[in-house]
Amino acid sequence: MFHVVKIVKQNVERVEAICLFLSLISTDMKKRFTIISLALLPLLISQCATKKAASDDGVAAGVESAKVAEIKKQYSEAQIQEGMTIWQNSCVKCHKLFEPESRTIAKWETILPNMSMRAKLNQDQSAKFRAYILTHAKLG
Ligand code: HEC
User: Most exposed residue of 18, 57, 96, 140, measured as fewest CB within 10 angstroms of its CB?
Assistant: First the structure.
C-alpha cells in the first residue's frame, strides 16, 4: 500500500514538472506535451506494478527454498524416506494418493496439518511426512 502511494506521489511530481514546463512554452506545443504525458502515465504506472509483482514472486520463491534447505539440514535422507513410506501407507485410506508435486509448498502447508490429523499420525510421523512432502513439492 505504502509502495503504491509512493508511485502515485512520484508520478504526481513528474506531472507537476511537466506542467511547469508547459507554462513556459507556446499553446500549440502545450497541447502536444499534454497528450504525450497523459499517454505515458498509464505506461509508467503499469511498469512500476510489474516490477513490484516480479519482486514479490522472487521473495516467495526465496522463502520456499529456504524452508527446503532448513528441512534438509534437520532431517536425514533416511528420515525423509520414512516420510515417503508414511505418505504411501497413510494417505490412501480415504482418497487417491496425492503426489507431492501436485501442489506448491505454500499450498501444502495449508493442507498438511488437517490431513496428518485425519490420518492420525503422531508428532514424529507427521514431521517426517511433512519433510518428505515439502522437499518434493512443486516449485513456485
Ligand atoms: C496424511 C496423508 C494424506 C494426504 C497427503 C492427503 N490426505 Fe486427505 N482428504 C480427506 C477429505 C475428506 C478431503 C476433502 C475435504 C477437505 O479438503 O478437507 C481430503 C482432501 C485432501 C487433499 C485435497 C485438498 C485441497 O484443498 O486441494 C489433499 C491434497 C489431501 N487430502 C492429501 C480425507 C482424508 C483421510 C480420511 C480420514 C485421510 C487419512 C487423509 N485424507 C489423508 C491424507
Answer: 96
